[in-house]
């Protein structure tokens, strides 16, 4: 086994889900020019929802130098490039027939890195924990291709991003339940669960209540009536009885924006009630990040983000999707903890990275073991990680060079621009030189695992 280059350009591909922005309006779409193989056909009328960067067999990366070679196969032959992550996490893929992972069970980075761009709400979803993922994979490996959990983070790339994430504080939920007149039209099971939760606001009672809301269909008249009233009244009148934390004028405007979006794209879908009344509607500004735990419900609404998660493609969809595509709400009950959070509690702290030699790199304090993320906006060099990394040139022109700690490896220089994507092997020091005409707009994002990183910077692992 010969040691290969620690800096390797990749071919990565988009997903064309209908909620993505279309053509050149989509950042994920624009990145395909250099992220994909040269013969990739960009379609200006097609939605481009995500750009995947990682080794998950659902949409895996390939080597740019060998377009038929999977990154996972390259790493399987060169496990030293994975560093400590190779033995720390192992593979979440069993190779079970029908899973699509039959020949890709080894050589995996422990995270999945994405650029995501949405013009409307994604399905209201939650990801199974490891125990439930293993059970679901055994039962239906085609739908649930791995046995991993999927905690994740999102960092805003544009001027703003809106998304539903994690349960609101219980008092806010009760404000909706007691103040929205259309709720009185809901069935007796929901009414009883509302009374129970109002009297005793516990996680178990919230779980039962939320599950009953998840059983609402994709075509409910009282959801349409609610939307019509709120849109006609406007945010201040429709939510005039809502006061205190979570209900500032700006937050009420965002509630109205969510109602309008749902009414336009998912008219009558009960998912609006399951999100608006129960989950935080978080607004991020450029460079701000938030996290969703492995059992946290969420539904991204509008904007562009880098998204980073444990390597998994397991998902339970329970809203903003046709009834025939919705998963059993009782499965969600086995996953969700119903812990409430405020938006401030979801926001990621960020600071200068101590492995940065010039101080031009910001790292986000991520509370999950499998991954971390950093952002470079000007010339810098980084000390090596003891695990793998994937870098994306989001904007600008850069000169990238490596200097491996392994003496057998030669230094390598790359001229890179928007959409170039690289794998960085464990033990590889890198230098990033901003040679853009407009240096202020240039930026690099790097997802990585590093057990040696300062825990006060990347979060306890």
TrEMBL record:
Binds 1 zinc ion per subunit. Zn(2+) binds at residues 125, 127, 152, 298. GO terms for molecular function: mannose-6-phosphate isomerase activity; zinc ion binding. One of its GO terms (biological process) is carbohydrate metabolic process. CDD domains: cupin_PMI_type_I_N (cd07011). One of its GO terms (cellular component) is cytosol. It comes from the Eukaryota. Its cofactor is Zn(2+). Its EC number is 5.3.1.8. Pfam families: PMI_typeI_cat (PF20511). Keywords: Isomerase, Metal-binding, Zinc. Gene3D superfamilies: Jelly Rolls, Phosphomannose Isomerase, domain 2. Belongs to the mannose-6-phosphate isomerase type 1 family. PANTHER family: MANNOSE-6-PHOSPHATE ISOMERASE (PTHR10309). This is Mannose-6-phosphate isomerase. It comes from Kwoniella dendrophila CBS 6074.
